[in-house]
Amino acid sequence: MTFKTTLMIGTALTAVAGMALADAHGMADEMTIVSWGGAYQASQIGAYSDPYLEMHPEMTIIYDESSAEAVAKLRAMNEAGNITWDLVDVEAADAIRLCDEGLAMEVDHDEILAAADDGTDASDDFGDSIVSDCFIPQIVFSTTMGYRTDLVGDTPPTSICAIFDLETYPGQRSLNRRPIANMEWALLCDGVAKDDIYDVLATEEGQAQAFAKLDTIKDSVVWWTAGAETPQLLADGEVVMGSTYNGRLFSAIAEQDQPIGMLWDAQMLDFDGWIIPEGLPEDRLARVLDFVHFATDTQRLADQAKFISYGPARASSAPLVGNHGTLGIPMAEHMPTDPANASNVFVTQYDFWADYRDDLDAKFQSWLAQ
Amino acid sequence: MTDASAPENEVMLTSDGRSLKSSLNRALRREKIRALLLIAPLLLFIILTFVAPIVDMLFRSVENEIVGNTLPDTVEVLAEWDPETGELPSERAFEALYADLFLAAEAKQHTRLGSRLNYEQSGISSVFRSSGRSLDDVGELTQDVLEDLDPAWEEASFWYGIMQGTGDPANGLLKSRRDRLAALTTEDMSGDIGFLPGSDISVVLPRTAAAYSDFAIFTAIADEDVVSEEEPWEGVYAAIGLDLQDPALREGILAYDGPGAAQLNAALEAELPVINYREAMIEIDDGWADLSNWEVIKTYSPRYTDGYFLNAIDMRNGADGAEWRPENEQLYLTLFLRTMLMSLAITFSCILLGYPIAWLMANLPARSANLLMILVLLPFWTSLLVRTSAWKVLLQQQGVINDLLVGIGLLDDANRLVMINNATGTIIAMTHILLPFMVLPLYSVLKTIPPSYLRAAKSLGATDWTAFWRVYFPQSVPGIGAGSILVFITAIGYYITPEIVGGTKGVFISNRIAFHISSSLNWGLAAALGAILLTLVLALYWVYDRLVGIDNVKLGG
């Protein structure tokens, strides 16, 4: 055999091997869960996946911290025809959007979720938190504001509008790189009545008004994309104040003992939960359903509150919420729904955001880039 | 090389009797094929993984089939509508819109069209989304009346009986509906569905037969259910309402004697709700009363569009052709300009910093030069993300540099420098990251310049500066050229570093491309921006070739 022939045969073999390379993904003892990273994801690992893995030691659970871009990524996966995620943690508005677009699977809540211990159907136990046929609720959370106690002088902020008050509180602030919450707060602090905000925000003029208000602080804002960034920026002293999720602030304050204070004023209350992507192969779907059934039962949802200060979405879990897993402090008073914290709650209208998110996102991003 | 005048019988032959020329060609061809086979895997690999995706992606910058595929009937009716009249489209357009949208909502494709059109007309996405949720209500008006009239209308099998008929099947209708659904869902809609629309009924009730066929195809193929066991969706009731109230069809329905004739005649005589689709659609979402939304659908109905390219240069299709976007939406020209200017700035700072290093490396003794080389290469081997994040630590307001300046009293604590999350941050970090691309080619060229030239110039009376500027520098230009091209072209397409340290004022056009590819999923616009960027780079390369000459660029001695 001459060298040339050998080379040619080798080349041909490589080509054949390349074509025969099969898609090896999709084994049911592996599951990819998409979540938000940081303290929240840690609470899910502690309350759901670690106990589940104890029962199923052959399993591998992979966490992907992409929930903030879940809608875009699921759309792209759908376009490419290759769904690599098994279970996705999203906010209520995103769940509605994904359901409308056929990217999330519609589920029968009573069929796939465990009933409460007293026999109440899952759909009654979850109640209003089931905002869409695709949404499997987990928690109630709120977006709120934290500040550096040592950088605000003798007058710690008491109102959310401190964000827009550069005179009293000079310095950088961190805000979410998405319109949600920012637009509402901007209008609220521009004098729009709380009940009218979404009506105003649905109009061109209202959106312009919100952007104009945000313009006043645009140069002093660090924009974050992950919930863990604000606590980090606050801890570094890079920002004076910033918005983030209440559980992240709790963990920075209570667990890491940072000089950070938090504000419950105009906290934006919202639901967070699972969706199952549409079009999973049978073996993966079976695994996901098994996990979801376990992870959303009464005890598991109550367990999550041991790790982070988010309220369980099940009515039957509320009485079981106890003390923090390691610190031993009672968790109930750190929940966004605790009466002491809920004196001025702003309930996020997820159906508004389901309809307007695409449009406002586009406007917000080009506003940012200008 | 052949002699044209040579007579044919004098062709030179090889030993096996063939002409020498064809024999030679054959041998050459064999060699060529063999050579081609050798590179075939690489060629295939490059075509499949590089060329084809790029062409496919660039094609998206003009492709616009979604409007025609999602709203085919509406687009057809709108062809006769003139927006200049200032009036909303006809009732027929609203009827077509209802039917098209209903089908799109069942296939969950309406939100995609909404997102697509929202690129051109902000706010239209929410119109499509909220409409998709309420379309059932309109069909239910007719459904309720029919079902009160005769409970048979609630039965799946009754409907199936009527629509299947007893005579010949209308294969043409089924085929055209299959094609329509396949275009809408981009999925294969062929295969047995256990239903064939009767040719009689599709003449008597054309809208209903079409709507029921859609329902049947969708039920059997997408939902994998049995058609005869499923009650039709509301859109079919809306269609039969229109058919029964159509005066042109009345005669045909009266004469019809197939399955369900009695119920159809009873329904014909009953008072079905008269639905004004214009009012119904506006009731569902008042966006349909907005002329500009309709105009956008009409403007973007062709299969190909220049809309993405116009958008990429801050323009749009207006009533009178292309026009500038409103000031507050203009973005991309600024970004292109910023990308160019900042890449130039980065290239120049690379020359300024890189030239002395390269000169030192070329002129120091080998030992020290090697050490310098390692110092240049070390960061080159470090992960890009690590280097960028390190700059974040150094440059931030509570960072090392600011702390140092405050510590030695050069800076007041309240006036710390803002060196990150802006253009400064991007230029500093990218200069550092791209520096090796300047130093290495420069070094390899400087290395080849004989030191004796400089000495000769000095011995002829030149000052240090003249000797450098007139003798040494001109010989190093090819190295500067090579380094500049490398740095500039790399910088222009960079996006990780600007994303991390650029804030909002220090980002490049490539960050917007990445944003449109991965977040907003406006791939058409991303493709258009990418195509423009590619053209710009090629144009600059051409200009460079004309000015400096590409042969003068040297990557090594």
From TrEMBL, chain A:
Keyword Cytoplasm: no
Leader peptide range in chain numbering: 1-22
SUPFAM superfamilies: Periplasmic binding protein-like II
Keywords: Signal
Pfam families: SBP_bac_8
Protein name: Bacterial extracellular solute-binding protein
Native species: Flavimaricola marinus
TrEMBL record, chain B:
Alphabetical list of PROSITE patterns matching this protein: ABC_TM1
Keyword Transmembrane listed: yes
Entry membrane topology: Multi-pass membrane protein
UniProt keyword Aminoacyl-tRNA synthetase present: no
Protein's cellular compartments: Cell membrane
GO biological process, one term: transmembrane transport
Alphabetized UniProt keyword annotations: Cell membrane, Membrane, Transmembrane, Transmembrane helix, Transport
Family: Belongs to the binding-protein-dependent transport system permease family. CysTW subfamily.
ABC transmembrane type-1 domain residues: 336-544
Name this polypeptide is given: Spermidine/putrescine transport system permease protein PotB
The organism's place on the tree of life at top rank: Bacteria
SUPFAM superfamilies attached to this UniProt entry: MetI-like
One Pfam family, short name: BPD_transp_1
Coiled-coil blocks: none
Ranges annotated as spanning the membrane: 35-55, 335-357, 369-386, 427-446, 477-496, 523-544
Example of a GO cellular component annotation carried by this entry: plasma membrane
